[in-house]
Specification:
alpha+beta, 5 domains, 13 helices, 23% helix, disordered N terminus, DNA-binding, Tesmin/TSO1-like_CXC, Lin-54_fam, CRC, nucleus, CRC domain-containing protein
Length: 662
DNA sequence: GAGTTTGAAACT
DNA sequence: CAGTTTCAAACTC
């Protein structure tokens, strides 16, 4: 079974091939958190076990703290449930225990399901009905045959190391987890790459097994499978379901099962904010897997509510290690809000329905049914590169839907359909929370690092650029551009502002600036723009952006003063607005018909004028009658009293009338 | 808003 | 690797 041609791997940046995130160790006891030696901050034990029945198997994700665990339950054929897990090695399904022969320590089971470890170190569990799979020995890889959901796990390691494997299965063949690779090797690092495809499965974590790998590497597939035992699976970090090396950023991994046939694998480039999505066509899986392939969505950082993922191709998102960087929108935990709604002809993932600040940008440019062509020269394998931000934006969109058409007839393309917010416009919140400015590129097609969007790993969205290729419609060009940038500078997409050396400022520019005329006190300077001081690695001339610089201090003071003024103005405006609002509230009848109006609200201009007229009339009469001033004043006051009485009487009458009428 | 300045990125 | 060109953002008027 051909999973991912090596030629495709060759296209991808080398970083993808790096394996640093997860250490795999063979001798760990089952589900023993304390014994885990992986490079984890908060180790989680992830156990995979199945029930004796064919209907359900459980993927239990546990952690010593139990706070971040997200157990997964995979229903045969149709659903994978992620449910909280407390214990570290228990199957969560209430089904009877598996056959004794497959039972291993901690309730885990041997792998009896077929799988394929491809030449490029991808482990595939296939829904292959027959046992005539690839000859494992001929490929130097083991093969297990299994009639369960197809599961693809890729190490992407050039070294080709162990992999992990998980798999659900039928009653006759209890779900199993397999580990491949040579167990005799030292603890190894490997990267679990996105799993996807029709039968997309999320590679949640690294996996540790107890099996001795020699069994796997040298024995026949069947033998290997019998000897394979799943021990533990670990995530690298609490919120992370896919271990990835390099400088991570707050990101999601997402699988876009965009077409019915091709599987999708997602790859995280260490240190890159791009998400590589690899489309894989399982040539041997055949269409039989279509309706029974489960999708596994890996654990999120949040305590998990059950997450039901349907078998239909869908998009899955997995949060990865949050990083130091910053410009990115904090990914929305996937925990409980994502749902998958399968349809006959389309697979839809309805994203969290909560009000979301970010909208996927360039899907606005995608007409429904946009086809993403396969990668040139790679046969029926297509791929796409998605920036993390984009993924995040997608996830945060209330209405984003990526769908694949079941009627899609070829295996060389991906059909995507984007559904935008109903109003088709960005919300206020989204516009205000947008982390970057729109670009204005005109000549670079937004495919060079001149473009901030591209440099930040984002698709252009609501930009003012012309002839923009930084979108899904030009994915192939975009991919080439990314590769070109990475060829020039492997760290091109890594954050420029990183940690400084010990003793230095916490943050400093990774390359330093080269300013010559700005004194590093204008935003031309990347250091100044990032609000950090120049460091020893800067090559700037006439730098004034250092700690004791009087110019810098002056600027800082001015900036502070300006900020204070802005704050004061804001506060004043807020206060005034509040007062006006309060005044309006007070002068607005609390009840219709004036029933609850305050007394003074009855003294309108007309009433006041009428009252004055009455008083003036009394004054004139007193004057005409030559009354003493004291008498005149008394008459006027008496008239004023009567006026007040009339006003009060009228108010009361109005209130009564209102009460009657209402 | 048009024109200028600036420095990173790209190119040679 | 250095010099030059291209580019888009920052800035000025």
């Amino acid at each position: 079974m051909d999973v991912v041609p090596s030629e495709l791997n060759s296209i991808l940046p080398d970083e993808i091939m790096d394996t640093e995130a997860i250490v795999m160790e063979d001798s760990l006891p089952v589900a023993s958190p304390t014994s885990v030696s992986m490079e984890t901050e908060v180790p989680e034990i992830f156990s995979l076990c199945s029930t004796a029945t064919s209907t359900q198997m459980t993927l239990a994700l546990t952690t010593p703290t139990t706070t971040d665990s997200v157990p997964c339950t995979m229903n045969s054929g149709t659903q994978l449930l992620l449910t909280p897990s407390v214990s570290s090695s228990q199957c969560h399904t209430p089904a009877p225990a598996p056959k004794p022969t497959t039972l291993v320590a901690g309730g885990l089971q041997k792998l009896s399901a077929p799988f394929t470890l491809s030449a490029n170190h991808q482990l595939i569990l296939n829904k292959v009905g027959s046992s005539s799979g690839v000859d494992a020995k001929s490929h130097g890889t083991p093969l297990l045959k299994h009639e369960g959901q197809k599961l693809v796990v890729t190490t992407i390691s050039k070294g080709g190391q162990p992999i992990v494997l998980t798999l659900p299965h039928t009653a006759a063949k209890p779900g199993t987890v397999v580990r491949t690779g040579d167990a005799t090797v030292q603890p190894q690092q490997f990267k679990v790459v996105a799993i996807g495809g029709r039968t997309e499965l999320k590679p949640v974590v690294g996996v540790q097994t107890v099996s001795t790998a020699s069994q796997l590497g040298s024995s026949s597939p069947q033998t290997a499978s019998q000897n394979q035992q799943l021990k533990t699976v670990q995530t690298v970090k609490p919120v992370q379901t896919v271990a990835v090396g390099g400088v991570g950023t707050s990101q999601f991994k997402t699988i876009f099962p965009l077409a019915a046939t091709p599987s999708v694998q997602q790859i995280q480039v260490p240190g890159s904010r791009f998400h590589y999505v690899r489309l894989v066509t399982a040539t041997t899986a055949s269409g039989t897997a279509h309706n029974s392939s489960p999708s596994i969505n890996s654990a999120s950082s949040q305590p998990a509510k059950p997450l039901v993922v349907n078998t239909a191709p869908m998009r899955m998102s997995v949060p990865i290690v949050p990083a130091q960087t910053v410009k990115q929108v904090v990914p929305k935990p996937l925990n409980s809000t994502a749902q998958v709604v399968p349809t006959q002809t389309q697979q839809r993932l309805i994203m969290p329905a909560t009000p979301l600040p970010q909208i996927q940008p360039n899907l606005t440019n995608l007409p429904p049914g946009t086809v993403l062509t396969s990668a040139p020269g790679v046969g029926n394998v297509g791929y796409a590169v998605l920036p993390a931000q984009y993924v995040t934006q997608l996830q945060q969109s209330s209405f984003v839907t990526l769908a694949s058409s079941a009627s899609y007839s070829t295996t060389t393309g991906i059909q995507t359909q984007a559904r935008m917010p109903l109003n088709g416009t960005l919300s206020v919140s989204e516009s205000t929370t947008r982390p970057r400015k729109p670009c204005n590129c005109t000549k670079s097609q937004c495919l060079k690092l001149y473009c901030d969007c591209f440099a930040n790993g984002e698709f252009c969205s609501n930009c003012n650029c012309t002839n923009c290729f930084n979108n899904l419609e030009h994915e192939s060009e975009r991919l080439k551009a990314i590769k070109a940038c990475l060829d020039r500078n492997p760290e091109a997409f890594k954050p420029k502002i990183g940690k400084g050396k010990e003793g230095e400022s916490d943050r400093r520019h990774s390359k330093g600036c080269n300013c010559k005329r700005s004194g590093c006190l204008k935003n031309y300077c990347e250091c100044y723009e990032a609000k950090i001081m120049c460091s020893s690695i800067c090559k700037c001339v006439g730098c004034k952006n250092f700690e004791e610089s009087p110019e810098r201090k002056t600027l800082m003071h001015l900036a502070d003063a300006a900020e204070v003024r802005v704050q004061q103005q804001t506060a004043a405006k807020t206060k005034l607005s509040s007062q006006i609002s309060d005044l309006l509230t007070r002068t607005t009848p609390a009840l219709p018909c004036g029933g609850g109006r305050l007394p003074y609200t009855f003294v309108t201009k007309e009433v006041a004028e009428a009252t004055c007229d009455c008083l003036m009339e009394q004054a004139e009469q007193a004057e005409l009658s030559s009354q003493p001033q004291a008498v005149a004043e008394r008459v006027i006051l008496e008239e004023f009293g009567r006026c007040l009485m009339r006003i009060i009487s009228s108010a009361g009458k109005a209130k009564m009338d209102c009460s009657i009428n209402c």
